[in-house]
UniProtKB/TrEMBL annotation:
Main localization category: membrane
Domain TonB-dependent receptor plug: 236-334
GO cellular component terms attached to this protein's record: cell outer membrane
Family as reported in the entry's similarity comment: Belongs to the TonB-dependent receptor family.
Organism of origin: Formosa sediminum
Record carries keyword Transport: yes
Keywords for this protein: Cell outer membrane, Membrane, Transmembrane, Transmembrane beta strand, Transport
Compartments reported by the entry: Cell outer membrane
Protein name listed in UniProt: SusC/RagA family TonB-linked outer membrane protein
Topological relation to the membrane, as annotated: Multi-pass membrane protein
Keyword Ribonucleoprotein found: no
A Pfam family it matches: CarbopepD_reg_2
């Protein structure tokens, strides 16, 4: 023990050579916090003032001894001393001891007659033994105490503890503790434990005075516990719309982040293309992400820094009653995360590990042309556009065009041309890319946790390591995480807790070339990385071989491009430590009233170093391009020789201080009242800065400044091809400093009558430096009202429960990049006239700035049928958002042509339902299913949309009144004419052949880019030791443009042609009559320009449904039998095999996967199945 104290006392932290930004004290605080928490947990593992530490006593032989001898034996082998009067145990017989080891607690229990004596600690090492008085012995014998917790160690407040057969009962307190005085005690005395949402238990009291109970969750969704971050209540007593995910559901998934693990488990929550959303989007400029709350405090960090294996539960708050207590950041929903805590009992060690294997992307999904197909297409383009013209000899040219020009100029024979073309047709460079640059993606994850504690103190410690692999060789990312959580009952009226969440992400990778980019078509299929002898192959890259050789001959840098030699010419190094310290205390003022105080601090620092050596093609090319050579051959390097480095540093800091009064009491077993009032103060500080250096030497950190003004103005006579005019603007990382402050006051009240009729109200007042100074927009509260009624179903045997809910209230949202004061940004380059720093206005001051308000109405039903075999919920809602920030045109003479103001409106309407079924349940076989469905209709009801031309209307997603957000507009396609040119319909049916002939009114709204529908179906089967489950997710009702729209020959430089294209473009117009097929691509029409190409690219022909469904995961687990594990001293061992994304269905003509589709130009990288092997064991 003393060694532990000395270790923690004398460890010191010295910081040197640390870059000051928000201050080196941030890192020092992080390190000291970690050290304090580590030592706190380390000391907790030393002997405490409780016999539950399970110290063991060695008995060397079978013998009969007196109690005094037993005390001496314990004192000799431990630090414990016993205090009792002389002759205290006169008249007591000897105790029969057997050779072996026995725990101290068990030895004392069998040695000291409980009817006559009691014992306890007078300090940390002394045990006092006292005689019971007859009266006290009788009363003490009737008192039973303990704690009621869930399977994941969370206390269950309000659990019922009843002496069976009597009216004698109590409820557990806020921490799950109870104490009951029995009316009678005999061999049949039984205590009944129950809690809404959990399977009840009945326990014979026997000789026990302390009974701790762990209740298991029931299958009934109505009976779950809602953790709002401010309070914990049973869902049966709630009026709001919540979605809950239990610890068991989370643990059954293998994804490395929590959001992926809860996808498909909560109605109204979607994770489309990796972006979380709750009940749609209702803003243009403010945050669209849900608010995260972790262990009772708002979480500002990266949600992926939280280890999903350490999460006990997730609650998604969806309506106003559920979320409005979080004020101006609750419109997008609130995701409340509770991490696992300590447990009462002996220490439990858990180890889990997963190995995830993802094969290389399926090249066939990219649907790129083969060498032969692309050569045919290139020959067509040459005949149509290039024959007779010439490319500037200083610029690159692909091998096929070189052969075509050489044949045309008579430099090679027809036979040689044909043999070389045939040789190129047989080459496959993509297979070399897979062999040389890519690999199977492998991700490893290891988690180790320790949990334990006594009735007074519980602890939880976990560490995890994750190595996230990449398809690119040697480009993995390391992540180390740590969680510490301690809870200490200092007194009957005082309980404190402290937790630390920490993570450290890092990588140091060579990124000089991307194999995935090459595989995706950024190279031609007949280009090779290595020749037949294994030597690296040289490519032309922007400049021709002849031009590169000329530059070398005049003394400039060598720009010879060998892709395989580029890999280590660019290195990226990233480091990101993060720590979250959360400390709380609960003071019981009375049995019904307590005060909670909580403080949280988050700190994060990131650094990214991106260094390219002079051998990197981009660096050497830039230096050469800017160089000038005079008539004497003297070279002037306007970009200094040497490497180039860009470094970016970011820091964030947040602090939260919250105080809250809680009152809970049940009157006459019918009137259940819960009240809370609180105040909260928060501050969030973020910053970023960085720089770019030229002529950088990593050995001595030297660099050379450049003439930014001269380079941005332009240089004549430079070596850049083809015309020698060079201009360059150095782009440095933005410098950002932001500080957002909030002060809030809030309250919530709930009343439940006879466990049937419930009402709820909440109110919150927020103040922030993000709001305007106009008094009429200040001190405007956000509030909600809710009611629920549980109908009497006793007359209907098939209907177990039916509860109706109704809520109404106002949530808020706030944009963090605008404010009541002027926002400016310093430009990355100086003014080209004055050579002084210059800045520009991002947004002008706005004293009327206020939060965006969302009025939410929710009607819901919770039900349970056929003895809980079927359960679920149905919710209908409407969210009307007012004062949405939108751009309004202003007088341009003021310095800006538009400003952001609170005036726009957006509506979201929807329905959600969930059906859970327990199909089969017996001793050896259990089968359950769950179906979720959500629909959200989004509509912009007010927005100032100034007129724009046809082209700008179709190239991007539009926000227009009367339409859903992210609407896609298209041109009415009329097919190709007899010359292979695209045409279009006007609104009146007239056919035109140029973009200039169309008006905005001629366009058609093709639909929304955001899926209004989402659904999931999951099933779980347990057979003896085997667990089998799967999850199917669906997103639909939205649209996307087809891959055919993303290419038009005019847009591709026919001289260069250095990228591959989709096979679908091989179906192009060649002769009259081909236009009969509506999907035939246009001919190459030289000189037509932009007036024709959009008629094809943005045609409604190419808009298709984006509905898709995926088997998100399928899992098989095997739990080894207990009879086998007992021989290994292991309490649990589970083996898992899981496959993510093995099957998919895409409802479109060309089988485009909406999750990876890049919109028009590339199909993206195929999402491959991920095979996971896992093990989970407890000691």
């Amino acid at each position: 023990m003393s060694n532990q104290l000395n270790l923690c006392k004398f460890m010191k932290i010295n910081l040197t050579n640390h870059r000051p930004f928000l201050g080196k004290w941030i890192l020092e605080i992080i390190m000291r916090t970690f050290l304090f928490a580590f030592c706190f947990t380390l000391l907790s593992l030393a002997p405490k003032n409780s016999l539950s530490q399970n110290a063991e006593i060695v008995i060397d032989e079978d013998k009969m001894v007196f109690i005094e001898e037993i005390f001496k034996m314990i004192s000799d082998q431990t630090d414990y001393n016993f205090i009792y009067p002389d002759d205290f145990f006169v008249g007591l017989g000897k105790v029969d001891l057997k050779k072996g080891k026995i725990k101290v607690s068990e030895l004392l229990e069998m040695s000291i007659p409980k009817e006559e004596f009691s014992y306890g600690f007078s300090n940390k090492k002394n045990i006092s033994v006292r005689k019971r008085s007859k009266q006290n012995s009788s009363v003490q014998n009737l008192k039973i105490k303990g704690v009621v917790i869930s399977e994941n160690g969370m206390p269950l407040p309000g659990a019922s503890v009843v002496e069976k057969g009597t009216l004698n009962g109590v409820m557990t307190d806020f921490d799950g503790n109870y104490e009951i005085t029995l009316s009678n005690r005999d061999e049949n005395t039984t205590l009944s434990f129950s809690f809404v949402g959990y399977v009840g238990q009945e326990i014979l009291v026997g000789d026990n005075n302390v009974i701790d109970i762990t209740l298991k969750e029931s299958m009934n969704e109505l009976d779950e516990v809602v953790v709002t971050g401010y309070q914990t209540i049973s869902k049966e007593r709630s009026t709001g719309a919540y979605g809950m995910v239990s610890s068991k559901q989370i643990e059954n998934k293998v994804q490395t982040d929590i959001l992926s693990r809860i996808e498909g488990l909560v109605p109204g929550f979607s994770l489309y293309r990796g972006t979380p959303a709750v009940r749609g989007t209702a803003t243009f400029n403010a945050s669209t992400l849900p608010l995260y709350v972790v262990d009772g405090a708002i979480f500002e960090g990266d949600i992926e820094s939280i280890n999903p294996n350490e999460i006990a539960s997730v609650t998604v708050l969806k309506d106003a009653t559920a979320a409005s207590i979080y004020g101006v950041r609750s419109t997008n929903g609130v995701i409340v995360i509770t991490t696992k805590g300590g447990i009462v009992g002996k220490p439990v060690i858990n180890y889990s590990s997963t190995l995830q294997i993802t094969p290389l992307p399926d090249q066939s999904y990219s649907n790129l042309m083969s060498s032969s197909e692309l050569i045919d297409y290139q020959m067509y383009i040459f005949d149509e556009a290039l024959s007779g013209s010439r490319q500037n000899s200083r610029l690159e040219m692909n091998d096929v065009n070189k052969l075509l020009y050489a044949r045309e100029d008579g430099e090679i024979t027809e036979d040689y041309f044909n043999s070389e073309i045939d040789r190129l047709r047989g080459l496959d460079g993509y297979s070399q890319v897979e062999d040389e640059l890519l690999q199977t993606m492998i991700t490893q994850q290891h988690n180790l946790s320790l949990r334990g504690g006594t009735e007074k103190y519980q602890y939880a410690l976990s560490v995890n390591y994750q190595n996230t692999g990449s398809y690119e060789k040697d480009r993995s990312v390391d992540k180390i995480g740590m969680t510490l959580k301690n809870t200490l009952q200092l007194a009957d009226w005082l309980k404190v807790d402290a937790s630390v969440i920490g993570s450290y992400n890092s990588y140091d990778n060579n990124v000089g070339i991307s194999g995935l980019s090459l595989l995706g078509g950024s190279m031609l299929p007949y280009q090779l990385l290595k020749d037949e002898d294994g030597n690296a192959v040289r490519w032309e890259n922007y400049k021709s071989f002849e031009e590169v050789d000329r530059l070398i001959s005049v003394g400039l840098l060598d720009e010879s491009y060998y892709p395989l030699e580029q890999l280590d010419t660019r290195t990226q190094t990233y480091k990101n430590p993060y720590v979250n310290l959360n400390i709380g205390a609960k003071i019981d003022v009375t049995e019904s009233l307590n005060l909670e105080v909580r403080a949280q601090t988050e700190m994060s620092r990131s650094s990214l170093s991106d260094y390219s050596s002079i051998e990197n093609i981009a660096v050497s090319r830039l230096i050469n391009n800017a160089a000038q050579i005079d008539e004497n051959g003297i070279i002037t390097y306007n970009i200094p020789e040497g490497g180039q480095i860009t470094e970016t540093f970011g820091e964030s800091y947040s602090s939260t201080l919250k105080a809250q009064l809680n009152y809970a009491k049940v009157f006459n077993d019918k009137h259940d009242i819960n009240l809370l009032f609180g105040a909260e103060r928060r501050k969030v500080v973020t910053g970023q800065k960085g720089y770019k250096r030229y002529g950088y030497d990593p050995d001595n950190f030297s660099y050379t400044n450049i003439d930014e003004v001269g380079l941005s103005s332009g240089i004549f006579g430079a070596e850049i091809p083809p015309y020698g005019y060079f201009t360059y603007t150095s782009v440095e990382p933005e410098t950002i400093e932001e500080e957002n402050r909030y002060v809030s006051f809030y309250g919530n009240g709930a009343y439940m009558f006879n466990n049937k009729l419930g009402v709820n109200a909440s109110i919150r007042m927020d103040q922030s430096n993000l709001f305007g100074t106009d008094p009429k927009y200040q001190y405007v509260p956000l509030w909600s009202l809710g009611a629920s009624y549980r109908l009497n179903t006793e007359s209907l045997s098939w209907l177990d429960r039916l509860k109706v809910r109704a809520t109404y209230g106002i949530n808020g949202n706030v944009a963090k990049d605008v404010g009541p004061f002027i926002f400016t940004q310093v430009a990355s380059v100086n003014n080209y006239i004055t050579n002084e720093k210059q800045a520009y206005v991002l947004s002008p001051p706005n004293e009327s700035l206020r939060w965006e308000k969302t009025n939410t109405t929710n009607l819901g039903i919770d039900y349970s049928l056929f003895s809980n075999r079927i359960s679920g919920s149905i919710d209908v809602y409407k969210k009307s958002t007012k004062d949405v920030l939108g751009n309004v045109n202003t007088d341009p003479t003021l310095g800006w042509d538009s400003v952001l103001k609170n005036y726009a409106s957006i509506d979201n309407k929807g329905i959600e339902f969930q059906v859970n079924s327990l199909n089969i349940a017996n001793k050896n076989f259990t089968w359950s299913t769950s179906l979720l469905f959500s629909y959200n209709k989004n509509e912009i009801t007010n927005l100032d949309h100034t007129g724009q031309d046809v082209y700008n209307q179709v190239i991007g997603l539009q926000q227009l009144v009367g339409q859903p957000m992210n609407s896609l507009y298209s041109i009415r396609y009329a097919g190709l004419n007899d010359e292979g040119a695209p045409t279009a319909y006007k609104k009146d049916g007239t056919i035109v052949n140029s973009l200039e002939s169309l008006e905005v009114e001629d366009l058609v709204n093709s639909g929304t880019y955001t899926p209004p529908y989402s659904a999931s179906f999951s099933s779980s089967i347990t057979y003896k030791q085997f667990d089998f489950s799967f999850l199917i997710v669906y997103y639909g009702g939205h649209v996307q443009r087809d891959v055919a729209a993303g290419f038009y020959p005019t847009y591709t430089n026919p001289y260069t042609f250095n990228t591959n294209i989709d096979k679908i473009h091989g179906n192009y117009w060649k002769e009259p009559g081909d236009e009969a097929n509506i999907y035939t691509s246009p001919a190459h029409l030289s000189g037509t320009g932009d007036s024709v190409t959009p008629l094809w690219e943005y045609a409604d022909l190419h808009v298709q449904k984006a509905d898709y469904a995926k088997l998100r995961n399928i899992s098989l687990a095997y739990n080894l039998p207990q009879s086998f594990l007992e021989t290994l001293n292991i309490s649990k061992l589970k083996l898992v095999f899981d496959v993510q994304n093995p099957l998919s269905w895409n409802n479109n003509r060309n089988n485009l996967d909406p999750e990876t589709w890049t919109d028009q130009y590339s199909r993206g990288t195929a999402i491959m199945p991920t095979y996971t092997f896992g093990v989970n064991l407890n000691f």
